[in-house]
Amino acid sequence: MVSRGMRSRQLARRAAGLGALTAALLMGRAQAGPVRVPDPLSLEYPGRKAATPARVELGKTLFFDPRLSSSGTVSCATCHKQELGWSDGRRYSVGVSGRPLKRHTPHLLNLAWQKTFFWDGRATSLEEQALGPLENPDELDMPIHTLVPKLEAVPGYRRAFGEAYPGSGITARNVTNAIASFVRTLVSGGAPFDRYQAGEQAAMSPAARRGMDLFYGRAACSTCHSGPHLSDGKFHNTGVPGDDRGRSALDRVGEFQMRPYPFFQTQKAFKTPGLRNVALSAPYMHDGSEPSLLEVVRFYNKGGKEKESYGLALDIRPLNLDEPQIADLVAFLEALTAPVNVTPPDIPGDPTHQKGMP
Ligand code: HEC
Ligand code: HEC
Known about the structure:
Elements: H1 4-27, H2 53-64, H3 76-79, H4 126-135, H5 144-152, H6 155-164, H7 172-184, H8 192-197, H9 206-216, E1 235-236, E2 270-271, H10 293-301, H11 323-334
Antiparallel strand pairs: 1-2
Helix pairs in contact: 2-6, 2-7, 4-7, 9-11, 10-11
The protein binds heme C (2 copies).
């Protein structure tokens, strides 16, 4: 058991860290403090090209351009819609093939600090991740070696790549680097939760404050949803039913010592999603099986749905919260909302975009 004093010290430490986060996000640059949150543009990714405003802008254009799909009708933004918290409101999204995807579309917020991507963490950089939807015949169906010559045929892209990547221009690496650079700028901060941590008492309702105490206390949500982005970046089995083996499908016997998670601990384990703006991106979980935040909290309150599941995380157990406490937790999750909106770009050579590059 954690003593009351220890718990309030922990809460105070967290609060101090989150205050620094808010300040850093508001000021848009790195701050010294318990949680150091650099400007995503200044983050260093060993072996990768650093982001510049020109690369971010180019990545945004690519993200919204349906010419990145074989049908010319689907873009990254088809499934990752900003008005729906960068997800698309469906249980399973549909790309060029019309076949529903096997997993639910996650949001894209505060990924600059994550180390692995996809629900099972199979990509280790956002550059590598971007190749996934491009090559998947059910998503964009546009392998990178087909895409590069297609972009070269558009004068506006030749110019934009020349400016963003002097000397190398349109290459596979630069295409994925530009997209990744844009995704890293999707950062949500300054939510009621952050303003409360920064000392603005009225920013969070009494219900949300009670929910926060449960989240960091009795309900132990913060064992996995930790830190400023509310994710530990690790894989856990929370008792979502189904046949998807999650992380364990990546692990191989004999190879497991190379990996941080031995295969037997990763049965049906999925990456802890960050919870920033989670109120905007229903439905939830890797299979989109929970339609609302209320249902998610009820799911946890029951100790998950697949209680006998092999590898079920120790922290998943019935919480015995009553309905008002469940509502308080939902109010807390809603207090993590600070929408991230971007101005849709001009698509080069697209006549529907008047200001577009030629
Ligand atoms: C047809 C719908 C669809 C399209 C189009 C699509 N995505 Fe996704 N995206 C998904 C789904 C579904 C997942 C989860 C797949 C999984 O985990 O196996 C995902 C996962 C991701 C992730 C990982 C998020 C995390 O938390 O790990 C990122 C980043 C991402 N997509 C970016 C993009 C980019 C960039 C593009 C365009 C190049 C794109 N997506 C196109 C549906 C889509
Ligand atoms: C043992 C680690 C762990 C604990 C404890 C935990 N979570 Fe989660 N949470 C996860 C993982 C892993 C997922 C994704 C599960 C999946 O898709 O199968 C998740 C998913 C979610 C989602 C859905 C997010 C989305 O974008 O789909 C919400 C909301 C959430 N958790 C809130 C909570 C709350 C509230 C609590 C406390 C009552 C809590 N979690 C406790 C690990 C945990």
